[in-house]
Amino acid sequence: MSAATTRSRTPDRLCAEAVDLARTAAEEAAAPGVVGEHVDLVSEGDRVVTHFFECKELGYRGWRWAVTVARASRAKIVTLDEVVMLPGPDAVLAPEWVPWSERLRPGDLGPGDLLPTDADDDRLESGYAESGYDDRLAPGDSGDDEPEPQLADAEPDDADDAEDTPDLATPPARGTITAVADELGLRRARVLSRYGLHIAADRWEEAFGAQTPMAQAAPATCVSCGFLTPIGGSLGRAFGVCANEFSPADGRVVSLTYGCGGHSEAAVMPAPPRPAQPVVDETRVDPFPLRPAADSGSVPVGAGDEETAELGHS
């Protein structure tokens, strides 16, 4: 450790004693009566010390006035360097700033709002890839040879960037990959990735799935309901759209295992049997004899009982 570093940790004596100079500077910069007691001082370097004073201004609880003083080498006069208000250890601070993309929640998008999607969004992937060649075959070509690339005139560098994004406004040339994708309904620059499909399915399953209280009390699932409207794609094997205006899921994507009381066949479905409630009659008293009846034994009472009584036969 160098000698300069050691000296910087020890406050300069003249700068440390300049408390009155620091207080006067703080009172000139602040409103009257808001500068409190001297609470601490910190050595900022060689012959540089910062004095901290309590701040009594409303709304700045825990903040402190920081006044930095310094003096030149071999000088006896301490001069003022800076006066600011800084938060202390117990200061009330605003929460840490969070980017808007992390603050956004479902339902925050309103009319006229634009939500740009990142180019590397994990929920999306490329819908199709351009080959960069002219895919059309001239009459008489067998298609065995590789198509030769078309040579274009030299253009500015920004033209290369424009080619990366498909021009959806201009109809594609017939026979190209873009034209085939357009005919098949696949002319989208990006589509849902496998990750995007999974998180969407989890979100819909949580809102209108088999584990919801409504589905647990439903007479049947949506897979047998006439109000279910099927959807296409791979998600159509597990989800559909509810078209029952009286259902809480009307117009929503529901799981095929979801259900509600508005099932189309709820009126004709047999109700599950319920056992009858036990009936206890509390108005009558059941007699319980203290001794068994004479004829309750396995051997009937006869004339020879008196003779066999001595042998212990009952």
Brief account:
The chain is of the alpha+beta class and 314 residues long.
**Per the principal axes of the C-alpha atoms, what is the gross shape?**
flat
Helical content band: 10-25%
The rounded distance between the terminal residues' Cα atoms is 112 Å
| Major sheet strand order | 1-2-3-4
Number of strands: 9
Instruction: Give me the strand/helix succession.
Output: HHHEEEEHEHHEHHEEEH
Flag low-confidence runs.
1-7, 133-163
| Count of separate DSSP helical elements | 9
Q: What average pLDDT do the residues reach?
A: 78
Mind describing the biggest β-sheet?
Answer: 4 strands, antiparallel
Alpha-carbon Rg, integer? 44 Å
Percent of residues in β-strands:
15-25%
Classify the secondary structure makeup into a structural class: alpha+beta
Give an overview of the whole structure.
With 314 residues, this protein is α+β, with helices and mostly antiparallel strands. Helix content is 20%, strand content 17%. It has nine helices and nine strands. The strands form three sheets. A four-stranded antiparallel sheet has the order 1-2-3-4. It has a three-stranded antiparallel sheet with strand order 7-8-9. The longest helix has 14 residues, at 194-207. The protein is flat.
